[in-house]
Design brief:
Elements: H1 2-10, E1 20-31, E2 38-48, E3 54-55, E4 68-69, H2 77-84
Antiparallel strand pairs: 1-2, 3-4
Length: about 80
């Protein structure tokens, strides 16, 4: 996966193309949801780099060029004082 990140920076793909890695799992336990039987089957999984799950802080924040993980909630320091008390 680290090679995907390096390649995105050093050799970016054209717009709309996605760099993927296909991984073969020789043994994957799966369950038939109707009969509740268990099976061991081979499976392929495709991984890709996701870069659009970032949250930007408000424009008036001095750290506005930092990004935060998806799901991060920005709290104004004044509001934080109210939440704590």
């Amino acid at each position: 996966m680290i090679n995907n990140v390096k390649n995105e920076v050093l050799r970016p793909l054209d717009e709309g193309q996605v760099r993927t890695i296909r991984v073969h799992e020789r043994t994957k336990i799966v369950r038939n949801t109707k009969t509740y039987e268990l099976f061991t089957l081979p499976r392929h999984k495709t991984y890709r780099l996701v870069t659009n799950k970032l949250v930007l802080p408000p424009a008036d924040d001095p750290d506005r060029f930092l990004t935060y993980p998806y799901g991060y909630n920005y709290v104004d320091p004044d509001q934080l004082a109210l939440l704590i008390s």
